[in-house]
Design brief:
mainly beta, Immunoglobulin-like, four-stranded antiparallel beta sheet
C-alpha cells in the first residue's frame, strides 16, 4: 500500500506557494499501564507481597511476568523473577500475586519492578541505505500561463545545489494532473528524465471550462540500487479526491506488521510500521536501531502515529543519519516497552496483624484488652474495633489507641449490660505529620476477634427496691391514720366566730341574741371590733386603730365591753 510507505495524497488545498510536505501525525495512543494495578506491601521483616491485575485479552496475546531488582546506594542486585503464588481469573481480568522473601530492610534500599513478556518479542530487519532511498517530495509547485496560452508547471527540491546530488545522480520526476472530479488512477502521467524541473502542458490537451489539479514526485534515475518514489508534493490550487485505501486484512496476532524503512538520501531514515488497534490498547512498541558494524543500540525518539484506521494504526519514526555518512547498513527492530516502576519498601509497610488478643473483666464492670505484636524498627498505632455479636462489622465502634500502647480498657458506659460483644485490633505504622521521610504504610489485617460477655446492670434492682419501699410506706394503715389525724388538727386550727368569747359569757349555753350596737373601746393591745345590729345600715364591722383610740381617756380606763340590758 502506498500510504504505509509514506505515499499518500492530501485532500486540503494548500494556499502557500512553498509549503512543507503535509503529514497527519498524532502521538502514540495511550496504553493501559499494567503498573498502575501493581501494589506491593511488606511487613518490613520477612517478605514483600505484590499483587497486580492483567487484562484477560492482553494476557491471551502477550502474557507478562513480574521481575524485581533490589538496589541501594552501595550496590545493585541482578534482576530476578517474582514467582507467582496464585492467580484469580474473571472474564475481564486476571489477578496475580507473588512473594519476595527477604530479611534485610533499610531506608536506603529500593526495588525496581518491571513487567516483561513471558516469551521474548522482537521484530528486526537489516537495512541498507542505498537500497532503500526514498527522497523527500518536491515543493513549491506552481502553474503559470505562457505567452502561447499553455500551462507551465514548475517546482523546487531540497536537493538542488546539494552535495548529495553526487551520490544520487540525475533525478527523475513524475507529474500527474487531472480534472478535480476524476480519480488519480485516471489522471494523466508525465515523466521528466532530463533533470528539468518544469513541465509544459499544451492547452489543447485540456478541456475548456474544467478545473485541473496537478502534483509531482521524484526518485534517482540510476537503477543500480532499489529506489522508491518520493511522496507526492502538495497539489496546485485544488482539492484532491483520493482513492479509497485498501487496508490489509487484520491478522489474529497483535505483533507489529509491515515494518518498512526508507532513506531520504541526506540525513534521515524514515521507518513505518502497523499495529493492530486491539494490541495498541494494552501494549506499546518502540523502534530501536543500530549500525551493522556496532553493537550499541539506540531508541528512536520521534515516534508518532501518521494514520489511524478502524482496525490498525500506522506509526512512523525518523532515524537521524550523520552528515557525510558512509553508506553503512543499519538494523532496525521493534521492542515491546516493558512497564516498570520504583518501589520503596519503607513507605509501603503493612504490619503483621496483632495476635494473642485477650480480655479481662475488672471488678467495676470494665474490660481490659491486651495483645502482642512483632518487634519492629518502627512505632505502631492501634485501632480497636468492637460490635455486638449479632451485628455486622459495618455497624461497629472504633477506638484509637496511642502509639505503642498494647493495652486498652473499654469503658463500662460504652457497653450494654447482658450483651455479647466481639472485639478485634489492627496496627499501622506511626509517622509524625510533620515528617517527610518516615516509615509509612496502610493498616494491617485485623486480628482474630475475642468475645466479651457483659453482666446485668446492678443499679437497676436497687432502684426498683427503693420504689417499692416508698409505695409500701404510702399505702400502709398507719400512714393512713396519721394522715387523718393531721387533717383533723389542721381543721381545728382554722378560726371560727362561734367559738370566740367576745360574743357570749362563760356560762351561756343558749344561742346568741341579736346584738345591740357596741361602742368601740380600746384594749391594751390590738384593735376593737364595733358590732352593730342586723338592721343597721352599716356595711361591715369597723376597726378602730390604736392611735385613734388614745384620744378617748375614759374609754382607755374602761377596758370592759358593755352589753345591752
Amino acid at each position: 500500500m502506498e500510504v504505509f510507505q509514506g505515499r499518500w495524497t492530501p485532500q486540503a488545498i494548500n494556499p502557500h506557494p512553498n509549503p512543507p510536505p503535509p503529514h497527519w501525525e498524532t502521538k502514540d495512543e495511550e496504553v493501559q499501564d499494567i503498573t498502575s494495578s501493581l501494589k506491593c506491601l511488606t511487613d518490613y521483616k520477612y517478605k514483600i507481597e505484590c499483587q497486580w491485575v492483567e487484562d484477560t485479552a492482553a494476557k491471551r496475546y502477550i502474557p507478562m511476568d513480574l521481575y524485581y531488582q533490589r538496589s541501594s546506594t552501595v550496590s545493585n542486585c541482578s534482576q530476578q523473577l517474582c514467582n507467582r503464588m496464585g492467580t484469580s481469573t474473571t472474564t475481564s481480568s486476571t489477578e496475580s500475586h507473588c512473594i519476595i522473601k527477604n530479611t534485610f530492610f533499610a531506608v536506603g534500599i529500593e526495588y525496581t519492578f518491571t513487567f516483561k513478556p513471558k516469551n521474548p518479542i522482537s521484530l528486526n530487519k537489516s537495512f541498507r541505505l542505498m537500497e532503500n532511498i526514498k527522497l523527500q517530495s518536491p515543493h513549491g509547485l506552481t502553474v503559470n500561463v505562457t505567452e502561447t496560452g499553455d500551462y507551465l508547471l514548475s517546482w523546487e527540491t531540497i536537493y538542488t545545489g546539494n552535495s548529495s546530488n553526487i551520490r544520487l545522480g540525475t533525478l527523475q520526476y513524475e507529474v500527474n494532473y487531472k480534472r478535480t472530479w476524476e480519480s488519480w488512477e485516471n489522471s494523466v502521467s508525465e515523466t521528466i528524465t532530463g533533470g528539468s524541473r518544469q513541465l509544459e502542458i499544451n492547452s489543447s490537451a485540456l478541456r475548456s471550462a474544467d478545473t485541473y489539479v496537478a502534483r509531482v514526485r521524484m526518485r534517482p534515475l540510476q537503477s543500480t540500487y532499489r529506489h522508491l518514489w518520493s511522496a507526492w508534493s502538495s497539489q496546485v490550487q485544488w482539492n484532491v479526491m483520493t482513492s479509497e485505501v485498501d487496508s490489509q486484512t487484520a491478522e489474529a496476532e497483535v505483533m507489529p506488521q509491515n515494518l518498512q524503512c526508507t532513506y531520504n538520501g541526506i540525513q534521515q531514515i524514515e521507518c513505518t510500521w502497523e499495529v493492530m488497534r486491539e494490541s495498541s490498547k494494552y501494549f506499546s512498541f518502540k523502534l530501536h536501531y543500530k549500525k551493522a558494524s556496532s553493537s550499541e543500540t539506540q531508541e528512536c525518539q520521534t515516534s508518532v502515529i501518521v494514520r489511524t484506521y478502524p482496525h490498525l494504526t500506522v506509526h512512523r519514526c525518523n532515524i537521524p543519519v550523520p552528515d557525510q555518512e558512509d553508506f553503512e547498513n543499519y538494523e532496525v527492530f521493534l521492542k515491546l516497552v516493558n512497564p516498570s516502576m520504583k518501589y520503596k519498601p519503607y513507605k509501603n509497610i503493612k504490619p503483621i496483624a496483632p495476635y494473642n488478643l485477650t480480655s479481662k473483666e475488672l471488678p467495676d464492670g470494665r474490660f481490659q484488652l491486651e495483645w502482642n505484636t512483632i518487634e519492629a524498627l518502627y512505632g505502631l498505632n492501634y485501632e480497636i474495633n468492637y460490635k455486638k455479636a449479632d451485628k455486622s462489622w459495618e455497624d461497629t465502634k472504633v477506638k484509637m489507641i496511642p502509639q505503642d500502647t498494647r493495652t486498652f480498657i473499654l469503658p463500662k458506659d460504652s457497653l450494654e449490660p447482658s450483651s455479647q460483644y466481639l472485639v478485634r485490633v489492627r496496627a499501622k505504622v506511626y509517622c509524625e505529620p510533620t515528617e517527610v521521610e518516615c516509615y509509612r504504610g496502610p493498616w494491617s489485617d485485623w486480628s482474630l476477634s475475642v468475645q466479651l460477655n457483659t453482666g446485668p446492670d446492678k443499679e437497676i434492682p436497687i432502684i426498683v427496691a427503693c420504689i417499692l419501699m416508698v409505695l409500701f410506706f404510702i399505702l400502709s394503715p398507719a400512714t393512713i391514720m396519721l394522715v387523718k389525724r393531721k387533717k383533723r388538727l389542721w381543721l381545728e386550727s382554722i378560726p371560727d366566730p362561734a367559738k370566740s368569747r367576745l360574743f357570749h359569757k362563760d356560762t351561756q349555753t343558749a344561742p346568741l341574741r341579736p346584738l345591740a350596737a357596741i361602742e368601740p373601746v380600746t384594749l391594751e393591745e390590738g384593735n376593737i371590733c364595733k358590732v352593730v345590729t342586723a338592721g343597721s345600715s352599716a356595711a361591715s364591722p369597723q376597726v378602730t386603730p390604736r392611735v385613734k383610740a388614745k384620744l378617748t381617756p375614759r374609754r382607755r380606763r374602761n377596758r370592759t365591753t358593755l352589753l345591752p340590758q
